[in-house]
């Protein structure tokens, strides 16, 4: 499965630092609590495509939590919008803080390593 992405690099992404060194990665259980409270799980699942893409697929496409990917997903979460995965728009969460959106983005990008079936990492 291939996805084409517009080659958009957001200004300021380079200033985001290396998220892996910030110690902000949540455990799966901690993140699940946030997802349930915020309602992300109404449209997203880790392994299954629902209205929005499966987070495992998001993680596989971006191939890791580098600063550019984190910044891109942070902006998507806060601003919403369509066109990356299809025509259905993601709702915006404009009141979410930068830090919270960044932490969620980092967690989503780590889901490729969550041990879900179907990925290509060594078991
Ligand atoms: C009403 C349904 C809905 C809800 C609720 C929702 N999303 Fe989405 N989400 C979508 C859709 C649809 C897309 C695909 C958008 C696109 O194609 O650009 C998406 C895309 C995404 C992406 C991938 C962005 C990209 O550019 O690749 C991330 C990450 C994401 N959502 C995170 C979240 C988080 C975190 C929450 C909760 C705070 C959330 N979503 C709540 C529907 C939803």
UniProtKB/TrEMBL annotation:
What is the top-level taxon of the source organism? Bacteria
Ranges for domain Cytochrome c come to 26-112
Task: Kindly list the organism's lineage.
Answer: Bacteria, Pseudomonadati, Pseudomonadota, Alphaproteobacteria, Sphingomonadales
Know the name of this protein?
C-type cytochrome
* InterPro entries attached to this UniProt entry: Cyt_c-like_dom, Cyt_c-like_dom_sf, Cyt_c_ID
Q: Which UniProt keywords apply?
A: Electron transport, Heme, Iron, Metal-binding, Transport
Q: Does the keyword Kinase apply?
A: no
